[in-house]
């Protein structure tokens, strides 16, 4: 399917499909609570895209109805809302699961009911092992580790330290980094952790600073923790290369950490954060710029990677419905799995029966913060 922008794709859907009944899409997203910085742009993105699609005539003249609930990042609420969406609201598919915990609750319900579910969370266990009805749009935490290790290796370093959040995302990425670090000839020489509510990580960073031979530092985590780690890193005068995860890939991280403290921090991110400086001919340039422009005009706030995950999920789902010519969940599921070469803000998706992520490592861009802005690492 050839497209130049997501909005153009959505508009085209109204011209390409046979008549369908009302299309109800469900969402359970963390619009409030500790993961609100992730979920708020996701809700706003879905609302914006539904409005744009319906204004363009919907799918063959039928409007898409978005029914969404705020689970606040609570897995129990997410499970309840997923059940309500399926049994009471009669949705044909679900987008959501801002966090890994919420995602795992939703997918158990969706799989039992055989309803397509596209997750917005990062952990690899969401799609490994592959489950028939569960897909996701963000890169996995394992891929983030691999991208970081590639860069560390290319810079000639061998000894690595980690300081990880004990939240679901941080713990999962810590485990994945440990699982693949040996593939890159690197050695983990220090391994510290912190709780998501901790207000100071100086003690852990001091231990890392005093560990002989440390050449690079990685911080798996999301929320406010990585911003505090970054400030403490700067306060201690640490000068070793510092890597964050894609869990903080937004301007909000720079604001919370402070531009001076975050200077030089690298992380694996998406084309969306550097849309303005992508070269002509980049496959993601048009779609990233179109979404960035539309979102910022609609909300008055900067675009974020996390909203981009929702953008791509909606694009994947509506594209699948159009190709399926049906609102039957099984037909939609089959069409999602047959998606090939669909360009999103996060990467170009090609799903298979053995791959329900559809992205490879090339979809990640290594980014660096310079003068308070995101730049690409050549």
From TrEMBL:
Residues 1-21 form the signal peptide. Keywords: Amino-acid transport, Signal, Transport. Residues 22-357 form the Leucine-binding protein domain. CDD domains: PBP1_ABC_RPA1789-like. It holds the Pfam family Peripla_BP_6. Gene3D superfamilies: 3.40.50.2300. GO terms for biological process: amino acid transport. It comes from the Bacteria. Belongs to the leucine-binding protein family. This is ABC transporter substrate-binding protein.
């Amino acid at each position: 399917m050839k497209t130049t922008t997501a909005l153009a794709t959505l508009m085209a859907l109204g011209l390409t499909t046979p008549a369908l009944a009302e299309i109800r899409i469900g969402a359970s997203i963390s619009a409030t609570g500790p993961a609100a910085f992730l979920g708020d742009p996701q809700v706003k993105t879905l609302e914006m895209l539904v409005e744009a699609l319906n204004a363009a005539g919907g799918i063959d003249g039928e409007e898409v109805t978005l029914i969404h609930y705020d689970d606040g990042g609570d897995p129990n609420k997410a499970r309840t809302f997923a059940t309500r969406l399926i049994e009471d609201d009669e949705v044909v598919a679900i987008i959501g699961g801002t966090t890994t915990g919420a995602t795992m609750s939703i997918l158990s319900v969706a799989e039992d009911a055989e309803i397509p579910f596209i997750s917005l969370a990062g952990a690899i266990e969401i799609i490994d092992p592959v489950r028939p009805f569960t897909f996701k749009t963000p890169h996995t935490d394992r891929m983030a580790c691999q991208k970081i290790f590639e860069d560390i290796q290319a810079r000639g370093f061998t000894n690595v330290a980690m300081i990880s959040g004990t939240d679901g995302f941080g713990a999962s990425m810590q485990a994945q980094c440990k699982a693949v670090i040996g593939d890159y000839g690197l050695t983990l020489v220090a391994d510290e952790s912190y709780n998501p509510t901790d207000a100071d990580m100086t003690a852990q960073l001091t231990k890392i600073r005093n560990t002989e031979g440390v050449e690079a530092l990685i911080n798996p985590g999301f929320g406010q923790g990585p911003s505090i780690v970054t400030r403490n890193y700067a306060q201690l005068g640490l000068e070793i290369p510092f890597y964050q995860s894609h869990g903080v890939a937004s301007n909000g991280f720079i604001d919370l950490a402070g531009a001076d403290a975050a200077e030089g921090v690298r992380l694996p991110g998406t084309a969306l954060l550097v849309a303005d400086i992508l070269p002509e001919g980049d496959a993601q340039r048009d779609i990233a710029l179109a979404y960035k422009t539309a979102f910022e005009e609609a909300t008055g706030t900067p675009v974020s990677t996390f909203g981009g995950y929702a953008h791509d999920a909606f694009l994947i789902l509506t594209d699948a419905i159009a190709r399926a010519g049906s609102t039957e969940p099984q037909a939609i599921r089959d069409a999602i799995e047959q998606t090939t070469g669909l360009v999103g803000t996060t990467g170009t998706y090609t799903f298979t029966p053995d791959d329900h992520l559809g992205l490879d490592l090339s979809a990640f861009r290594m980014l660096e913060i310079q003068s308070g802005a995101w730049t690409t690492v050549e």
